[in-house]
């Protein structure tokens, strides 16, 4: 019989540690009358579904605990586990006890079925474990967002999906949809992790060194109604006459890669934007930057770039340290850099300035006609200076284009051709998706680039809309040194992990941190990814990357305070 008191104990655990939507969906459901229970030979209660007289048991009717322990042994790597179906929770508990589970996500469809289970089974031990998150009847985008939030590869390790066959079979269509969403989310997280592993330490170091400069006073930038964004693809050359004849009310935002090509052609932009954290981005400014042109910089940009501009404007990207700074030191305008390339960020800047119409030039997302970049860009000068008899200019461009193993040739009916690769395709997909989502009219002049859903002629009218926002940072909440000292105190106050950092140990460590401490720890997670990559390259595994990254970050902040 249902036990109301047991149900409320289970619900208390859910309300304490799981999404609010989970509890509300369960309470709103009526118990599934198909759910029944049998006693296994070991005395455990085994739930089943009555499917037209056939009992579909969710676990072994002999020894479900032993069965779960055996199944858990099949997973030999620690990490993040997604459980498709809960049942009586035997397998999640076995993986928790094995020490392999860092964080876990339990996905269950049909809230009524789950309610019937919670009225008869004591699952409080499982539901009260902070390493687990239970989602009930989630939409695909909810599921993808949960994976993006909870799965931290630098700490968690691998990613495993554990299906409960009876539940997956009973709700095959919904669980199949969940599997597709999980695959997409994992791909996105993996791409993000790869970038963090490559740039994590540099991002952190640059942000620390930029803090003082970023807090200097800058005049606000007025809103715009019409904007132009320039990429550095070969088709930019053909757009130069149009850019020279642009109207006075068209605000030209140049990506840093396109800047030298524009200046060399006699086109002066109204603003320049840069998101690259590498010092090589300095070479885009070898021809100088006009004094009256504002330079928009990611907080993680190389510190020497800010010194090039009379008016540097800093913005915050999605880096957790940038968010931490914006909430505690100064509220910086935020731009979307999730596209992975500077043209995407330039489009975000145009939206942030309130533009209602944006025309994009030079964003080819391919190599049209076998050419990599517009003439006048940094790469042309770089190759020209380094060419030799056995390594001519052209061979360097070919090597650049074919460095990816996913390169393919694409022909147009009119005889034009271009080379494309997976990375450029991803950039184009993100550009299309983002441009289509904005409350403004975005068109791209294709040139010879890859086709896009945003291709079209330049708009002749500006669509109506509210006035744009002024681009300006907020007031200082405290002095920069005071902020650095408080942040250093937060980092040094974090508990130290002792002994080997197993995934389960790291997961418990993060789950038990207080909110302020967890927020401080999250700021260094991209650096942890970089330490993880270095450790794996050396073959030292997961020995102490979290501890090493924390000590390195503390040293960087202390060094900046001394300077």
Structure description:
- With 563 residues, the protein is of the alpha/beta class.
- The protein folds into three domains: 4-27 and 64-191, Rossmann fold (3-Layer(aba) Sandwich); 225-444, no CATH class; 478-562, no CATH class.
- Helix content is 45%, strand content 15%.
- The strands form four sheets. It has a seven-stranded parallel sheet with strand order 12-11-10-9-8-13-17. Strands 6-5-4-7 form a four-stranded parallel sheet, sandwiched between helices. Strands 1-2-3 form a three-stranded antiparallel sheet, covered by helices on one side.
- It is globular.
- It starts with a helix and ends with a helix.
Task: Give a summary of the structure in a few sentences.
This protein has about 575 residues and is α/β, with parallel strands linked by helices. The protein contains 23 helices and 17 strands. Helix 4 (about 90-100) links the parallel strand 4 (about 80-85) and strand 5.
What key attributes describe this structure?
Rossmann fold; 3 domains; seven-stranded parallel β-sheet; four-stranded parallel β-sheet; 23 helices
Task: Produce the secondary structure layout.
Elements: H1 4-17, H2 20-28, E1 35-39, E2 45-51, E3 54-57, H3 64-73, E4 79-84, H4 90-98, E5 101-108, H5 111-118, H6 124-127, E6 132-136, H7 140-150, H8 153-156, E7 158-163, H9 165-170, H10 172-214, E8 226-230, H11 236-244, E9 250-255, H12 259-264, E10 271-274, E11 295-298, H13 303-306, E12 312-315, H14 320-328, H15 342-352, E13 357-361, E14 367-368, H16 378-386, H17 393-401, E15 408-411, E16 417-420, H18 422-437, E17 441-444, H19 480-492, H20 503-511, H21 515-522, H22 525-538, H23 545-562
Helix pairs in contact: 2-5, 3-4, 7-10, 10-22, 10-23, 19-23, 22-23
């Amino acid at each position: 019989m249902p036990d109301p008191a047991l149900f409320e104990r289970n619900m208390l655990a859910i309300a304490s540690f799981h999404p609010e939507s989970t509890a509300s969906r369960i309470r709103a459901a009526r118990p599934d009358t198909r759910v029944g229970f049998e006693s296994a030979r070991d005395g455990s209660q085994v739930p089943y579904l009555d499917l037209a007289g056939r009992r579909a048991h969710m676990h072994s009717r002999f020894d479900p605990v032993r069965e779960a322990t055996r199944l858990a042994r099949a997973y030999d790597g620690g990490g993040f586990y997604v459980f498709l179906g809960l049942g009586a929770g035997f397998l999640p508990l076995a993986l928790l006890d094995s020490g392999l589970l860092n964080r876990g996500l339990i996905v269950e469809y049909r809230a009524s079925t789950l309610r019937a289970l919670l009225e008869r089974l004591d699952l409080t031990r499982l539901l009260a474990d902070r390493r687990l998150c239970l989602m009930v009847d989630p939409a695909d985008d909810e599921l993808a967002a949960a994976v993006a939030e909870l799965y931290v590869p630098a700490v968690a390790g691998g990613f495993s999906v554990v299906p409960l066959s009876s539940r997956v079979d009973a709700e095959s269509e919904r669980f199949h949809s969940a599997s597709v969403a999980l695959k997409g989310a994992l791909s996105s997280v993996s791409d993000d992790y790869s970038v963090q592993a490559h740039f994590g330490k540099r991002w952190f170091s640059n942000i620390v060194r930029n803090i003082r400069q970023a807090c200097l006073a800058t005049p606000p930038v007025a809103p715009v109604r019409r904007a132009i964004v320039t990429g550095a693809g070969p088709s930019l050359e053909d757009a130069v006459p149009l850019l020279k004849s642009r109207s006075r009310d068209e605000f030209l935002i140049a990506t840093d890669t396109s800047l030298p090509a524009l200046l060399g052609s006699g086109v002066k932009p109204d603003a320049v934007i840069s998101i690259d954290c590498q010092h090589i981005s300095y070479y885009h400014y070898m021809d100088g930057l006009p004094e009256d042109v504002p330079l928009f910089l990611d907080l993680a940009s190389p510190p020497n770039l800010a010194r090039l501009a009379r008016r540097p404007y800093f913005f915050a990207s999605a880096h957790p340290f940038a968010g931490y700074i914006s909430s505690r030191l100064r509220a910086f305008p935020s731009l979307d850099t999730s596209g992975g390339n500077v043209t995407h960020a330039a489009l975000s800047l145009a939206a942030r300035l309130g533009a209602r119409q944006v025309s994009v030039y030079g964003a080819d997302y391919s190599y049209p006609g076998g050419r990599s970049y517009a003439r006048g860009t940094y790469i042309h000068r770089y190759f020209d200076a380094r060419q030799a008899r056995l390594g001519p200019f052209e061979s360097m461009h070919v090597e650049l284009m074919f460095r990816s193993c996913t390169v393919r040739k694409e022909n147009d009916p009119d005889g034009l051709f271009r080379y494309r690769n997976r990375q450029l395709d991803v950039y184009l997909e993100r550009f299309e998706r983002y441009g289509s989502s904005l409350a403004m009219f975005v068109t791209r002049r294709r040139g010879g680039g890859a086709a896009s859903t945003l291709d079209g002629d330049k708009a002749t009218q500006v669509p109506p809309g509210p006035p744009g926002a002024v681009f300006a940072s907020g007031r200082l909440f405290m002095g920069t040194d005071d902020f650095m000292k408080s942040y250093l105190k937060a980092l040094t106050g974090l508990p130290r992990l002792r002994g080997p950092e197993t995934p389960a140990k790291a997961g418990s460590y993060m789950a038990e941190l207080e909110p302020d401490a967890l927020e401080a720890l999250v700021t260094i997670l991209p650096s942890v990814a970089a330490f993880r990559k270095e450790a794996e390259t050396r073959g030292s595994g997961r020995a102490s990357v979290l501890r090493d990254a924390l000590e390195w970050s503390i040293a960087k902040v202390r060094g900046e305070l001394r300077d």
